[in-house]
Amino acid sequence: MYGMIRIMSSVRLGPTSYVVLGGITLLGPSTSYDLKRFVETTLGHFWAFPHSQLYAEPARLAEAGLLTVEREQGGRRRRTYAITAAGHDALRAWLGEPTPGSQELRDIGLLKLFFTEVASDEDLEALVREQIAAHRATLARYQWLWERFGDRPEYARRVLTLKAGFALEGAMISFWEQLAEEVVPT
Amino acid sequence: MYGMIRIMSSVRLGPTSYVVLGGITLLGPSTSYDLKRFVETTLGHFWAFPHSQLYAEPARLAEAGLLTVEREQGGRRRRTYAITAAGHDALRAWLGEPTPGSQELRDIGLLKLFFTEVASDEDLEALVREQIAAHRATLARYQWLWERFGDRPEYARRVLTLKAGFALEGAMISFWEQLAEEVVPT
DNA sequence: GGTGCCATGTAACGAGTTACATGATTTG
DNA sequence: CAAATCATGTAACTCGTTACATGGCACC
């Protein structure tokens, strides 16, 4: 995975690990389901972490001493994870280390666009129309989130990624719209 | 994976499969190494496909009848894959079907940014500086590619993704630069 | 004709994906 | 109180990642 790191006692830490460590740091002691909802409504917009990982990963991190687990006895018997000093250190260390320009845009629309010389003109037109619609929808979702949370000072840092989302979706919309003018007959 | 599809005789086709099918369609009969180089210099810029997949995947597709294999007898004994009618159909079918707004931006920089309320100010400043540098470097790479290939009519379709890259990187640079003004002391 | 890099793979392992399962809560 | 949905997981399988291995080819 992207820049995996081994830490004492040979646990490999990847993006998923840091999402868990960071999420629990921001939320306080949490269950996997808490993490799932948190990720879905925030990071999940640009980087999806499947819920099965958010159940598996905390278990690994707990085994490595970066989290503690406590399991309910009655009811749903759910596991609540809390961060340890070691976990906090690992998160801080990651935040402090240099970040290569590791970025990946896994966009099926762009992938198809690359191969459209094999496709029919109708396929290309349809693709362009769908992409415009999809990106507009995403942008609208971001706007809704912004209206809801944009001015809460306690979220000031977290909403920065939302601003990045605006920039990106705006750029994608312009790109596809410009392409529409070139390829879609009016 | 993103929108996997089963086709006759239960082969699952994902993005990697279509990259292989599409690559061989554009290049003609190819070895895995040909695919590797092709992907590295084109799609790989926004979606990395590891070379081990580009060796494994054609084997699967050949078994499913979407490619043919031929193996050299002497020398490097390399396998050359060519597309079959079924393979071409599968590619066309994929290009023709609707594309959900499936997009994922796996950007470690943004991930860290989301969690910077846990980090120190120096970490944030360093992050911002690194990201600006990284995105500028990427943009420069795209510009070089554009100068090299932008006006070749036979690549007209393929370079469209490069234009998307411009839009994207430009947006990211603006985003991080604006952030720099806000957080980095002058 | 040796040396070093390039080409062509393979293997092992960890991560991601999908599907399923089941018990708790909520809601009609 | 039945039905639907939510919450909490687990399992199987595929994909991605990393590392290694080796033989060919080019170049000195």
Concise synopsis of the structure shown:
Helix content of chain A is 58%, strand content 11%. The first copy, chain A, is mainly alpha-helical and 186 residues long.
Topology:
The structure is a homodimer of 186-residue chains.
Chain A: E1 5-7, E2 11-13, H1 15-27, H2 32-41, H3 51-63, E3 67-71, E4 79-83, H4 85-96, E5 103-107, H5 108-114, H6 121-149, H7 160-183
Antiparallel strand pairs in A: 1-2, 3-4
The structure holds a DNA duplex (28 and 28 nucleotides).
Kindly describe this structure:
The structure is a homodimer of 186-residue chains. Chain A is mainly alpha-helical and 186 residues long. Helices cover 58% and strands 11% of the residues of chain A. Chain A has helices at 15-27, 32-41, 51-63, 85-96, 108-114, 121-149, 160-183; strands spanning 5-7, 11-13, 67-71, 79-83, 103-107. In chain A, the strands form two sheets. Chain A has a two-stranded antiparallel sheet with strand order 1-2. The model of chain A has no long low-confidence stretch (mean pLDDT 91). At the A-B interface, helix 1, helix 4, strand 5, helix 5 and helix 6 of A face helix 1, helix 4, strand 5, helix 5 and helix 6 of B. The structure holds a DNA duplex (28 and 28 nucleotides).
Average pLDDT confidence of chain A is 91
Largest sheet of chain A: 2 strands, antiparallel
Structural class of chain A: mainly alpha
* Rg of chain A, nearest Å: 20 Å
Described by its quaternary structure, the protein is homodimer
**Hey, which two chains have the biggest interface?**
A-B, 66 and 66 residues
Q: Whole-Å distance between the termini of chain A?
A: 45 Å
What are the low-pLDDT stretches of chain A, counting only 5+ consecutive residues below 50? Answer: none
